[in-house]
Amino acid sequence: MKTLESIKRELKEYDGKDIKIMEVCGTHTSSIFKNGIRSLISSRIQLISGPGCPVCVTASSYIDRLLEYALKDNHCVLTFGDMMKVKGSKLSLTEAKAMGGNVKILYSPLSAIKAAIKSPDTQFVFAAVGFETTAPIYALMMEEIIKNGIKNLRLMTSIKTIMPAVSYICVNEENIDAFLCPGHVSVITGSSLYREMALKYRKPFVIGGFDGEHIIAAIYEIVRQISSKEYDMKNMYQSAVSSEGNQKAKALIDKYFEVADDYWRGIGIIKDSALRLRPEYKDFDAGSTTSEDVDITPPGCKCTDVILGRITPAKCPLFGGACTPLNAVGPCMVSSEGACGIWYRNSEV
Ligand code: SF4
Question: Has keyword Transcription (predicted)?
Protein backbone atom coordinates (compact mmCIF):
# COMPACT_ATOMS: atom_id res chain seq x y z
CA MET A 1 0.00 0.00 0.00
CA LYS A 2 1.49 3.30 -1.10
CA THR A 3 0.74 5.21 2.12
CA LEU A 4 2.28 2.51 4.30
CA GLU A 5 5.49 2.79 2.29
CA SER A 6 5.35 6.56 2.70
CA ILE A 7 5.03 6.16 6.49
CA LYS A 8 8.12 3.91 6.50
CA ARG A 9 10.01 6.42 4.37
CA GLU A 10 9.10 9.30 6.72
CA LEU A 11 10.16 7.27 9.76
CA LYS A 12 13.54 6.52 8.17
CA GLU A 13 14.24 10.23 8.08
CA TYR A 14 12.81 10.81 11.55
CA ASP A 15 15.18 10.48 14.50
CA GLY A 16 12.85 11.71 17.29
CA LYS A 17 11.08 9.68 19.98
CA ASP A 18 8.33 7.18 19.21
CA ILE A 19 5.07 8.83 18.17
CA LYS A 20 1.93 8.55 20.28
CA ILE A 21 -1.28 9.36 18.40
CA MET A 22 -4.58 9.65 20.24
CA GLU A 23 -7.74 8.68 18.36
CA VAL A 24 -10.55 10.55 20.08
CA CYS A 25 -13.48 8.63 18.70
CA GLY A 26 -14.61 5.06 19.47
CA THR A 27 -15.50 4.45 15.81
CA HIS A 28 -11.85 5.08 14.88
CA THR A 29 -10.74 2.69 17.65
CA SER A 30 -13.02 -0.03 16.24
CA SER A 31 -11.84 0.57 12.68
CA ILE A 32 -8.18 0.46 13.74
CA PHE A 33 -8.83 -3.05 15.08
CA LYS A 34 -11.04 -4.16 12.21
CA ASN A 35 -8.38 -3.22 9.68
CA GLY A 36 -5.45 -4.55 11.71
CA ILE A 37 -3.79 -1.14 11.48
CA ARG A 38 -1.50 -1.64 14.50
CA SER A 39 0.09 -4.64 12.83
CA LEU A 40 0.53 -2.79 9.54
CA ILE A 41 2.28 0.31 10.83
CA SER A 42 5.65 0.63 12.53
CA SER A 43 6.01 -0.21 16.24
CA ARG A 44 7.41 3.31 16.58
CA ILE A 45 3.84 4.61 16.25
CA GLN A 46 1.51 3.99 19.17
CA LEU A 47 -2.22 4.42 18.68
CA ILE A 48 -4.01 5.19 21.91
CA SER A 49 -7.68 5.82 22.67
CA GLY A 50 -9.00 9.03 24.20
CA PRO A 51 -12.13 10.38 25.88
CA GLY A 52 -14.45 9.68 22.94
CA CYS A 53 -17.10 7.67 24.75
CA PRO A 54 -19.86 9.83 26.29
CA VAL A 55 -21.23 7.12 28.56
CA CYS A 56 -17.72 6.51 29.97
CA VAL A 57 -17.29 10.12 31.08
CA THR A 58 -20.74 10.62 32.61
CA ALA A 59 -20.57 11.03 36.39
CA SER A 60 -21.89 8.25 38.62
CA SER A 61 -24.02 10.79 40.52
CA TYR A 62 -25.91 11.44 37.26
CA ILE A 63 -26.74 7.72 37.06
CA ASP A 64 -27.85 7.81 40.70
CA ARG A 65 -30.35 10.55 39.80
CA LEU A 66 -31.72 8.43 36.94
CA LEU A 67 -32.09 5.51 39.36
CA GLU A 68 -34.14 7.64 41.73
CA TYR A 69 -36.56 8.49 38.95
CA ALA A 70 -36.70 4.86 37.77
CA LEU A 71 -37.75 3.75 41.25
CA LYS A 72 -40.18 6.62 41.82
CA ASP A 73 -43.92 6.04 41.50
CA ASN A 74 -45.44 7.07 38.24
CA HIS A 75 -42.08 7.78 36.60
CA CYS A 76 -40.26 6.14 33.70
CA VAL A 77 -36.64 6.57 32.60
CA LEU A 78 -36.00 6.40 28.86
CA THR A 79 -32.46 5.65 27.76
CA PHE A 80 -30.25 4.17 25.07
CA GLY A 81 -29.01 0.65 25.77
CA ASP A 82 -25.42 1.73 26.47
CA MET A 83 -26.43 3.43 29.73
CA MET A 84 -28.21 0.39 31.16
CA LYS A 85 -25.22 -1.44 32.61
CA VAL A 86 -23.10 1.50 33.76
CA LYS A 87 -23.09 1.64 37.53
CA GLY A 88 -23.87 4.71 39.56
CA SER A 89 -22.47 4.79 43.08
CA LYS A 90 -24.13 1.44 43.82
CA LEU A 91 -26.49 0.23 41.13
CA SER A 92 -27.02 0.35 37.38
CA LEU A 93 -30.29 0.98 35.56
CA THR A 94 -30.42 -2.74 34.71
CA GLU A 95 -30.33 -3.53 38.42
CA ALA A 96 -32.93 -0.86 39.17
CA LYS A 97 -35.19 -2.41 36.53
CA ALA A 98 -34.72 -5.84 38.12
CA MET A 99 -35.86 -4.26 41.41
CA GLY A 100 -39.07 -3.10 39.75
CA GLY A 101 -37.85 0.24 38.45
CA ASN A 102 -39.47 1.60 35.31
CA VAL A 103 -36.77 1.87 32.62
CA LYS A 104 -37.27 1.59 28.88
CA ILE A 105 -34.61 1.35 26.18
CA LEU A 106 -35.11 3.58 23.17
CA TYR A 107 -33.57 3.23 19.73
CA SER A 108 -34.48 6.74 18.63
CA PRO A 109 -34.80 9.82 20.87
CA LEU A 110 -37.88 10.90 19.00
CA SER A 111 -39.73 7.78 20.13
CA ALA A 112 -39.65 9.40 23.60
CA ILE A 113 -42.15 11.91 22.23
CA LYS A 114 -44.49 9.12 21.17
CA ALA A 115 -44.15 7.44 24.58
CA ALA A 116 -45.01 10.69 26.40
CA ILE A 117 -48.05 11.36 24.20
CA LYS A 118 -49.27 7.77 24.58
CA SER A 119 -49.01 7.75 28.40
CA PRO A 120 -49.92 11.26 29.63
CA ASP A 121 -50.15 10.12 33.26
CA THR A 122 -46.53 8.94 33.40
CA GLN A 123 -43.67 11.36 34.04
CA PHE A 124 -40.87 10.50 31.58
CA VAL A 125 -37.20 11.37 32.03
CA PHE A 126 -35.00 10.98 29.00
CA ALA A 127 -31.26 10.35 29.56
CA ALA A 128 -29.78 12.67 26.95
CA VAL A 129 -26.15 11.58 26.96
CA GLY A 130 -23.74 12.35 24.17
CA PHE A 131 -21.34 14.69 22.43
CA GLU A 132 -21.87 17.39 19.81
CA THR A 133 -23.01 14.65 17.41
CA THR A 134 -26.22 13.90 19.31
CA ALA A 135 -26.86 17.43 20.61
CA PRO A 136 -28.80 18.47 17.44
CA ILE A 137 -31.12 15.48 17.92
CA TYR A 138 -31.76 16.49 21.52
CA ALA A 139 -32.43 20.05 20.35
CA LEU A 140 -34.88 18.63 17.84
CA MET A 141 -36.53 16.73 20.68
CA MET A 142 -36.98 20.02 22.54
CA GLU A 143 -38.61 21.51 19.41
CA GLU A 144 -41.09 18.61 19.32
CA ILE A 145 -41.79 18.72 23.07
CA ILE A 146 -42.61 22.42 22.88
CA LYS A 147 -44.50 22.19 19.59
CA ASN A 148 -46.71 19.39 20.93
CA GLY A 149 -47.22 21.03 24.33
CA ILE A 150 -45.82 17.93 26.09
CA LYS A 151 -45.62 18.40 29.85
CA ASN A 152 -44.69 14.87 30.98
CA LEU A 153 -41.28 14.51 29.29
CA ARG A 154 -38.08 16.10 30.60
CA LEU A 155 -34.46 15.71 29.59
CA MET A 156 -31.66 14.85 31.98
CA THR A 157 -28.66 15.90 29.93
CA SER A 158 -25.05 14.88 30.08
CA ILE A 159 -23.95 16.42 26.80
CA LYS A 160 -20.22 16.99 26.65
CA THR A 161 -18.18 18.93 24.12
CA ILE A 162 -15.03 17.18 23.05
CA MET A 163 -12.68 20.10 22.32
CA PRO A 164 -12.29 21.25 25.97
CA ALA A 165 -11.40 17.66 26.89
CA VAL A 166 -8.79 17.53 24.13
CA SER A 167 -7.42 20.88 25.37
CA TYR A 168 -7.28 19.42 28.88
CA ILE A 169 -5.24 16.50 27.56
CA CYS A 170 -2.90 18.83 25.64
CA VAL A 171 -2.22 20.80 28.83
CA ASN A 172 -2.04 17.93 31.31
CA GLU A 173 -0.87 14.88 29.39
CA GLU A 174 2.39 15.71 27.70
CA ASN A 175 2.90 12.25 26.23
CA ILE A 176 0.35 12.65 23.41
CA ASP A 177 2.06 13.87 20.23
CA ALA A 178 -0.86 14.19 17.83
CA PHE A 179 -4.59 13.71 17.44
CA LEU A 180 -6.68 11.79 14.98
CA CYS A 181 -9.70 14.07 15.38
CA PRO A 182 -13.20 12.67 15.85
CA GLY A 183 -14.86 12.47 12.44
CA HIS A 184 -18.53 12.51 13.49
CA VAL A 185 -18.08 15.39 15.95
CA SER A 186 -16.15 17.34 13.33
CA VAL A 187 -19.10 17.14 10.93
CA ILE A 188 -21.00 19.34 13.42
CA THR A 189 -18.18 21.51 14.80
CA GLY A 190 -16.21 22.00 11.57
CA SER A 191 -12.46 21.81 11.17
CA SER A 192 -11.42 25.41 11.85
CA LEU A 193 -11.32 24.96 15.67
CA TYR A 194 -8.61 22.34 15.31
CA ARG A 195 -6.28 24.77 13.56
CA GLU A 196 -6.26 27.01 16.66
CA MET A 197 -5.52 23.93 18.79
CA ALA A 198 -2.72 22.72 16.47
CA LEU A 199 -1.01 26.10 16.54
CA LYS A 200 -1.54 26.64 20.26
CA TYR A 201 -0.31 23.21 21.40
CA ARG A 202 2.14 22.58 18.55
CA LYS A 203 0.70 19.19 17.70
CA PRO A 204 -0.79 17.85 14.44
CA PHE A 205 -4.59 17.59 14.42
CA VAL A 206 -5.70 15.48 11.49
CA ILE A 207 -9.33 14.77 10.61
CA GLY A 208 -9.69 11.42 8.91
CA GLY A 209 -12.46 9.18 7.65
CA PHE A 210 -13.23 5.78 9.12
CA ASP A 211 -12.02 3.32 6.46
CA GLY A 212 -8.69 1.63 6.99
CA GLU A 213 -7.15 3.51 4.04
CA HIS A 214 -8.37 6.84 5.40
CA ILE A 215 -6.91 6.15 8.83
CA ILE A 216 -3.55 5.11 7.38
CA ALA A 217 -3.50 8.24 5.22
CA ALA A 218 -4.21 10.36 8.33
CA ILE A 219 -1.41 8.58 10.24
CA TYR A 220 0.95 9.28 7.36
CA GLU A 221 0.04 12.98 7.49
CA ILE A 222 0.71 13.04 11.26
CA VAL A 223 4.09 11.32 10.87
CA ARG A 224 4.98 13.65 7.99
CA GLN A 225 4.14 16.75 10.08
CA ILE A 226 6.05 15.52 13.12
CA SER A 227 9.14 14.49 11.17
CA SER A 228 9.21 17.87 9.40
CA LYS A 229 8.34 19.74 12.65
CA GLU A 230 5.09 21.12 11.26
CA TYR A 231 2.07 21.39 13.54
CA ASP A 232 -1.18 22.08 11.77
CA MET A 233 -4.73 20.94 11.22
CA LYS A 234 -5.35 18.90 8.10
CA ASN A 235 -8.84 17.93 7.04
CA MET A 236 -8.62 14.64 5.16
CA TYR A 237 -12.35 13.97 5.49
CA GLN A 238 -13.57 16.83 3.34
CA SER A 239 -16.45 14.80 1.90
CA ALA A 240 -18.19 15.16 5.31
CA VAL A 241 -16.37 17.87 7.29
CA SER A 242 -16.39 21.52 6.27
CA SER A 243 -14.40 24.34 7.78
CA GLU A 244 -17.34 25.84 9.70
CA GLY A 245 -19.32 22.65 10.31
CA ASN A 246 -23.07 22.19 10.13
CA GLN A 247 -24.41 25.72 10.67
CA LYS A 248 -28.03 24.64 10.81
CA ALA A 249 -27.31 22.05 13.51
CA LYS A 250 -25.19 24.55 15.44
CA ALA A 251 -28.00 27.15 15.37
CA LEU A 252 -30.48 24.57 16.64
CA ILE A 253 -28.13 23.55 19.47
CA ASP A 254 -27.61 27.20 20.35
CA LYS A 255 -31.36 27.80 20.55
CA TYR A 256 -31.81 25.32 23.41
CA PHE A 257 -28.39 24.84 25.01
CA GLU A 258 -25.70 27.00 26.51
CA VAL A 259 -22.07 26.20 27.25
CA ALA A 260 -21.30 25.31 30.90
CA ASP A 261 -18.58 23.81 33.05
CA ASP A 262 -19.07 20.11 33.67
CA TYR A 263 -17.78 17.15 35.61
CA TRP A 264 -16.16 14.35 33.60
CA ARG A 265 -16.07 10.90 35.16
CA GLY A 266 -12.50 9.96 35.97
CA ILE A 267 -11.17 13.42 35.12
CA GLY A 268 -12.94 16.07 37.16
CA ILE A 269 -14.24 19.50 36.20
CA ILE A 270 -13.47 20.75 32.72
CA LYS A 271 -14.34 24.34 31.99
CA ASP A 272 -16.91 25.08 29.26
CA SER A 273 -17.19 21.41 28.40
CA ALA A 274 -20.95 20.82 28.43
CA LEU A 275 -24.11 21.85 26.66
CA ARG A 276 -26.83 22.47 29.21
CA LEU A 277 -30.44 23.49 28.67
CA ARG A 278 -30.80 27.28 28.75
CA PRO A 279 -32.44 28.75 31.89
CA GLU A 280 -35.63 29.55 29.95
CA TYR A 281 -36.10 25.77 29.45
CA LYS A 282 -35.45 24.80 33.07
CA ASP A 283 -38.93 23.26 33.37
CA PHE A 284 -37.77 20.61 30.90
CA ASP A 285 -34.61 19.83 32.85
CA ALA A 286 -34.85 16.77 35.12
CA GLY A 287 -31.41 17.25 36.74
CA SER A 288 -28.69 17.56 34.12
CA THR A 289 -24.99 17.21 34.94
CA THR A 290 -23.13 20.13 36.48
CA SER A 291 -19.62 20.77 37.79
CA GLU A 292 -20.96 19.69 41.19
CA ASP A 293 -21.49 16.10 40.14
CA VAL A 294 -19.35 13.46 41.81
CA ASP A 295 -17.95 10.17 40.94
CA ILE A 296 -16.92 6.85 42.41
CA THR A 297 -14.22 4.87 40.65
CA PRO A 298 -14.52 1.14 41.32
CA PRO A 299 -11.48 -0.26 43.18
CA GLY A 300 -8.71 -1.23 40.76
CA CYS A 301 -10.38 0.32 37.71
CA LYS A 302 -7.99 2.32 35.51
CA CYS A 303 -10.63 4.05 33.38
CA THR A 304 -9.09 7.46 34.13
CA ASP A 305 -5.72 6.33 32.75
CA VAL A 306 -7.43 4.79 29.72
CA ILE A 307 -9.54 7.89 28.98
CA LEU A 308 -6.52 10.17 29.28
CA GLY A 309 -4.38 7.97 27.04
CA ARG A 310 -1.85 7.04 29.73
CA ILE A 311 -2.32 3.32 29.23
CA THR A 312 -3.98 0.99 26.76
CA PRO A 313 -6.90 -1.02 28.21
CA ALA A 314 -4.83 -4.20 28.16
CA LYS A 315 -2.51 -2.62 30.75
CA CYS A 316 -5.31 -2.49 33.34
CA PRO A 317 -4.76 -5.44 35.71
CA LEU A 318 -8.50 -6.23 35.67
CA PHE A 319 -8.81 -6.28 31.85
CA GLY A 320 -10.21 -9.57 30.60
CA GLY A 321 -10.12 -11.16 34.07
CA ALA A 322 -12.22 -9.46 36.71
CA CYS A 323 -13.51 -7.03 34.07
CA THR A 324 -15.24 -8.23 30.91
CA PRO A 325 -18.31 -6.92 29.03
CA LEU A 326 -20.45 -9.49 30.86
CA ASN A 327 -19.10 -8.45 34.22
CA ALA A 328 -17.88 -4.89 33.66
CA VAL A 329 -16.10 -3.13 36.50
CA GLY A 330 -15.75 0.31 34.89
CA PRO A 331 -17.76 2.24 32.30
CA CYS A 332 -15.08 1.87 29.58
CA MET A 333 -15.90 -1.86 29.41
CA VAL A 334 -19.67 -1.35 29.24
CA SER A 335 -20.31 0.99 26.37
CA SER A 336 -20.00 -0.03 22.72
CA GLU A 337 -17.84 3.09 22.29
CA GLY A 338 -15.70 2.47 25.39
CA ALA A 339 -12.04 1.70 24.72
CA CYS A 340 -11.88 -1.31 27.08
CA GLY A 341 -14.96 -2.93 25.51
CA ILE A 342 -13.62 -2.38 22.00
CA TRP A 343 -10.20 -3.80 22.96
CA TYR A 344 -11.82 -6.79 24.66
CA ARG A 345 -14.09 -7.63 21.73
CA ASN A 346 -11.18 -7.41 19.30
CA SER A 347 -8.42 -9.07 21.33
CA GLU A 348 -7.74 -12.69 22.07
CA VAL A 349 -7.82 -12.45 25.85
FE1 SF4 B 1 -11.86 -0.10 34.20
FE2 SF4 B 1 -12.35 -2.58 33.29
FE3 SF4 B 1 -11.20 -0.85 31.71
FE4 SF4 B 1 -9.86 -1.82 33.76
S5 SF4 B 1 -10.58 -2.98 31.99
S6 SF4 B 1 -9.95 0.29 33.10
S7 SF4 B 1 -11.51 -2.06 35.26
S8 SF4 B 1 -13.26 -0.70 32.54
Answer: no
